[in-house]
Amino acid sequence: MAQKKPPTRKKASAQADDTRDRLLDAAEFEFAAVGLSGARVDTIARRAKINKQLIYYHFGDKDSLYQAVLERAYSRIREKEFGLDLASDDPIIAMRTLVGFTFDYCIENRAFVRLLINENVLEGRFIRRSKAIRQSGSPLSALLHDTVQRGVELGTFHRDVDPVQLYISIAGLCYFYVSNMYTLSALFERDLDRPSALQERRQHVIDVVLAYLGAGTPAWHAGELNSMP
Amino acid sequence: MAQKKPPTRKKASAQADDTRDRLLDAAEFEFAAVGLSGARVDTIARRAKINKQLIYYHFGDKDSLYQAVLERAYSRIREKEFGLDLASDDPIIAMRTLVGFTFDYCIENRAFVRLLINENVLEGRFIRRSKAIRQSGSPLSALLHDTVQRGVELGTFHRDVDPVQLYISIAGLCYFYVSNMYTLSALFERDLDRPSALQERRQHVIDVVLAYLGAGTPAWHAGELNSMP
Amino acid sequence: MAQKKPPTRKKASAQADDTRDRLLDAAEFEFAAVGLSGARVDTIARRAKINKQLIYYHFGDKDSLYQAVLERAYSRIREKEFGLDLASDDPIIAMRTLVGFTFDYCIENRAFVRLLINENVLEGRFIRRSKAIRQSGSPLSALLHDTVQRGVELGTFHRDVDPVQLYISIAGLCYFYVSNMYTLSALFERDLDRPSALQERRQHVIDVVLAYLGAGTPAWHAGELNSMP
Amino acid sequence: MAQKKPPTRKKASAQADDTRDRLLDAAEFEFAAVGLSGARVDTIARRAKINKQLIYYHFGDKDSLYQAVLERAYSRIREKEFGLDLASDDPIIAMRTLVGFTFDYCIENRAFVRLLINENVLEGRFIRRSKAIRQSGSPLSALLHDTVQRGVELGTFHRDVDPVQLYISIAGLCYFYVSNMYTLSALFERDLDRPSALQERRQHVIDVVLAYLGAGTPAWHAGELNSMP
DNA sequence: CATGAATGAGATTTCATTCAT
DNA sequence: TATGAATGAAATCTCATTCAT
Question: CA angle, C8 as apex, C6 and C10 as ends, to 5°?
Fold first, then answer.
């Protein structure tokens, strides 16, 4: 939630909050599109329909604006992940839900995927500074751990697995498809962004993960209902 | 915007070739590290220990230099991939080889991974211009297709699978680990770059892929010999 | 460029006066520290713990604020100088008092010294506009003239002297030490701001002035009592 | 002598040296006139008739340019001071020469006086970084010490004196007149920059210093020939 | 009186690119 | 080929000042 910076700021009017939000939206778009170094403050200001100098008034500098965008983006996905309520479901269902959610989130929030990419280009310089973001990782792996554990106990999952390793694989199967869509599309001369291609990929990713956990079979797909939003 | 091209250098001196190579190496390093927009021509020149103007002499402009770096990077991995000689091996072995190779290549050639990332930030603008790169995709999927096919025919693979989908998954499981190592390390407060972590990940990726193809079981690991280079 | 002036405030509240004072103090500090061009309106406001806009409310603009600070500073030293009551003392005592006072004032009011310095960097632009300041010079030289005259008549001073020339020398011996303390300290690798260094300088300056007037001898120092505050 | 900065620079053409010199001259003028913070890079470039960006090419940034100007200015006056050859003269003559030189130098090189002033506004930030400047102080006080010593031994100077204290007084009597000429002129409503005023001041300063050393008498002035250049 | 938000002009600095040799 | 010098366009950021409440 921490997304304010200016040390001088005391009371924030509703209008000022609106300005900040528009600014963050515009900045997220720009940073996601061209990265931190590629982003132009001018462009962000124009897109947010505000005076360029306001950016400096509200956030101090370009880097701090980027940091605010990054933190907001992380807090959003975490909020949704923890809202999935995986704990109460059947482990297989829960895992399908999680994988499906992850894939859908990537597709619908490409800005987020690209933001992460850029943050890695920056060698994680900003994520390392954000305590809030760093602290969001452990509940995530705990959640995964519990789900896998339950599956193993019920006998539906064949193997125990490191939740971190599993999370990275789920993310890799989903994020990479989005983040590298351009080179992959060019390489295989196939439009990976078509609805049918997305649907196909979604199923494939779920299949891979469940197969790995020992719970997925081709036959099992018959009743597939979990459609994309 | 590339104005000039070196006049189809025929009698290029050995020294000039050396200069070009040093230049491409330095440029690859810089582009991989900070992306196209983040890269500084000055920095590249300094790193290559040449005069900045030489960059313009040899490559015309920054974009063309980037394009040259990208093409060289792709041609290198393709060369190695086709050198794997998967066709003659047992499909399981072949697949283990391919997945292992892909993982190892990512680990050893992080610059390449980052280069791809950046090219995607640029929306594949340069890869689309390069016929050579685009043409390297289809033999790759053909190779994969054959291998899978053989596995299916031998009964060791349980299912048929789209080779493109499979390739993207293999790549995703490997590349994502490298490309997003910084954010993942921060998030899970775990150093993913330790030799033991790399070895663990390598095995995990192979397990996932083979499990999906229906050829991998935990028990099966006992005889694992495929160590990292 | 001063647009507006507070409407000749008559019923100024006590609070407003307090605000003005805090503002002038903060402004004096800032102008003395970094000069007119170096001073930041923001910094002054923050230091005075008031809202920046109040500066404009009270003084119209930055230049007028500077002018007010300058006038207050001059009026303060003149007030003290005329309070010295040199007229009734023995000329030698009077001169020792004046020189000592000038030195002490410089040491204790470095902001004032620096303010003058800056005003000279500005080529006296603001002092020329201030009738009040300009008019304070002539009584000063008259005072000096009388004192020297009395000394000459009593035979304790050996020579007549231009009071303006004398005043400038006294000031030069004192102000320069303070205004150029940083470069001098660096040059001679000696901390000129130590209490003992200050005391030594104070005596030296008195010696120089009295020697010039023909009234000072080294032996004469024995009964020195005029200590620094 | 140390006045080059750019780490990239290897061979300097005569033309480039000329550019650097013009740049330093223009910068000195500007810094002396309005201080470091008041100086405009644009103005300096225009005055030097060069492209503004060349400043960054040659000096890196505004601060480094200022540092180079400061070092050049100090090295110039030191060079002249040590060229006075005070050691071989009669101590009284030597002292008159030194004081006269100091005064004349201030009058003719007001830029230097103002440069020092500004450096003190900056709290000696740059002089402290310059080893070359700092090291020039000790030979100076040694020179003064010797001269005074010789005068004392010959009996023409009545007292021993700290050479640093003496140097500061000489400088104070000279520099202050120049550095504070604007406020002093306004205060005493007298143009202190007239040739006759300068000549008068020059004599006064010499008188004060020699009177202090015990070597000056009003009568003694009769043969004064040491005119201003 | 007082405040937070907003703005326009202009400052420093960066950077790809070209010039001259 | 190779180099140091030079340049124009544009980027980030600063800062006095004004607006709206």
Answer: 115
Vertex C111 angle, CA C109 and C112, to 5°: 70
Top CATH class, D84-218? mainly alpha
Angle value at C-alpha C218, between C216 and C221, nearest 5 degrees: 85
A14-66 belongs to CATH 3.40.50.300 = no
One-letter amino acid identity for C109?
N
Inter-CA distances, D224 with C205, D206, D218, D227, Å: 26, 11, 11, 8
| CATH, range B75-218 | 1.10.357.10
d(CA B48, CA B37): 19
CATH class label, C14-217 = mainly alpha
Q: What is the pTM of this model?
A: 0.85
Q: Do residues A116 and A31 touch, judged by C-beta distance below 8 A?
A: no
* Chain C residues touching residue D121 (CB < 8 angstroms): 33-35, 38, 114, 117-118, 121
CATH topology of domain B13-60: Arc Repressor Mutant, subunit A (1.10.10)
Question: What is the per-residue pLDDT across C13-37, written as a single tens digit (0 to 9) for each?
Answer: 666 678 889 999 999 999 999 999 9
Shortest Cα distance, chain C CAs vs residue D183, angstroms: 6
Distance from C-alpha of D65 to C-alpha of D61, rounded to nearest angstrom? 6
Q: Looking at the partner chain, which of D124, D180, D183 has a beta carbon nearest the beta carbon of C186? A: D124
In terms of Cα–Cα distance, which of B137, B138, B148 is closest to B99? Answer: B148
Q: Nearest nucleotide (C1') to the CA of residue D53?
A: F7
Q: How far is A137 from chain B (nearest CA, A)?
A: 5
DSSP letter, residue D60: S
Domain regions of chain B by residue span: 13-60, 75-218
Tell me how far apart the alpha carbons of residues A215 and B11 are, in angstroms, rounded to a whole number: 63
Residues in contact with D109: Cβ distance below 8 Å, sequence separation at least 6, in sequence order: D77
Asked whether residue B177 carries a pLDDT value surpassing 50, the answer given is yes
At what angle are helices A110-121 and B181-188 packed, to 10 degrees?
A: 90
At residue C189's C-alpha, the angle toward residues C183 and C193, to 5°, is: 70
DSSP SS3 for D55? helix
Q: Please write down the HEC assignment for all residues of D131-155.
A: HHHHCCHHHHHHHHHHHHHHHHHHC
User: Alpha carbon of A208 to those of A165, B127, B138, B164: distances in Å?
Assistant: 14, 29, 23, 14
Kindly give the residue spans of alpha helices, DSSP state H, lying in C39-90: 41-48, 52-59, 62-82
- CATH-assigned architecture of domain A84-223: Orthogonal Bundle (1.10)
For B77-98, what is each residue's pLDDT tens digit?
999 988 887 877 789 999 999 9
| A177 vs D156, higher pLDDT | A177
Which subunits have 3 or more CB–CB pairs within 8 Å of chain B? A
Dist. CA D202–CA D101, nearest whole Å:
10
Picking from A35, A136, A138, the nearest residue to B35 by CB comes out as: A35
Name the closest residue on chain D to residue C141, using Cα atoms. Answer: D188
Can you give the distance from the CA of residue A174 to the C1' of nucleotide F12 in angstroms?
A: 36
How far away is chain C from the Cα of D8, in angstroms, using its nearest Cα?
30
Q: Is the model more confident about C2 or about A206?
A: A206
Q: What type of residue is C70?
A: L
Alpha-carbon gap, residue D35 to D115, rounded angstroms: 7
